[in-house]
């Protein structure tokens, strides 16, 4: 079972850092600028993280040659994927969901920095049920539904 109270604390810390980066840099820069800003912000806030982690999925217990790269792994339990696109799509979410499932990570956050107000979507992964559940979507501090 997911320890949602601990994860919510971790999410709160990460989302606060995301908001500061977007406030400082503004909208419309390329993804790598925001990643670098997040790296600085995470370091200053003493949020434990790893950046650009490569991993290989397994098939029938065998490590595959295919490789994927996470933008960030924060506090050992949150995958953070950064985007700078006009609109988040199902493909962007599928990327995050696959990373969560393959790495058995309980939480994933996808951030779109391009809009005037950062879009932040948060998800929990229940490994036992193999189910990804949206927490809720935040646009500039306001919660909305994930139905768009």
Pairing-aware structural class of the strands and helices? alpha+beta
Report how far the terminal alpha carbons are from each other. 28 Å
Topology as a string of helices (H) and strands (E):
HHEEEEEHEEEE
- What spatial order of strands do you see in the largest sheet? 1-4-5-6-7-8-9
Query: How many discrete structural domains?
Result: 1
Rg, nearest Å: 15 Å
Tally of alpha and pi helices: 3
Give start-end ranges of low-pLDDT stretches: 138-148
Share of helix, binned: 25-40%
- Strand portion: 25-35%
Give the gist of this structure:
This protein has 148 residues and is of the alpha+beta class.
Would you mind describing this structure in some detail?
The strands form 2 sheets. The protein has a 7-stranded mixed β-sheet. It has a two-stranded antiparallel sheet with strand order 2-3. Helix 1 crosses helix 2. Mean pLDDT is 89; it is low at 138-148. It has helices at 4-25, 31-44, 90-103, and strands at residues 49-55, 58-59, 62-63, 68-74, 78-83, 107-112, 119-126, 131-139, 142-144. The longest helix is centred in the first third of the chain and has 22 residues, at 4-25. It has a single domain (4-144), classed as Trna Endonuclease, Chain: A, domain 1, CATH 3.40.1350. It is globular, with a radius of gyration of 15 Å. It is an alpha+beta fold. The protein contains 3 helices and 9 strands; from the N terminus they run H-H-E-E-E-E-E-H-E-E-E-E.
